[in-house]
Specification:
By secondary structure, this protein is α+β, with helices and mostly antiparallel strands. The protein is about 60% helix and about 15% strand. The protein has a domain at about 100-135.
Length: about 140
Amino acid sequence: MIKKALQRVKAEFYIELNQRLSKQYGLMAHDNSDYMDVLQDRFMFRIIIWCHKELVLLRRIKTNEGLNKTIDSEIADNFKLKTEILPKISSALNAINRKYVCFGISCRLTKRWISFQMFDRFLFQQWISFNFTQIY
């Protein structure tokens, strides 16, 4: 019940944000129950709002006795990956790219080489970038 209420609050927030962006800034936006896409100067931005309580609720189930039990959930793990881990990795990679100008170019060259060797099916793109930072 709390999960549905939280989703409704988020959906209402997306709707309100869409209206304000359209009215105040003239931006084109498309809201959804899980995210919001905003188009500005031919760039598309995806806005995802989350709170830590969502992650806790995804890992909790209620037993027949009425007790709350914490479980391992693949949905919660994917949610944590998308909302916590990947933004931190992207931020760290961006900081390295700002410090070392050649990092981005050499990382792309490495990814292209791995792709030509047909190893890209087995390797996660962020993993390649993250391991490539060891050189710097």
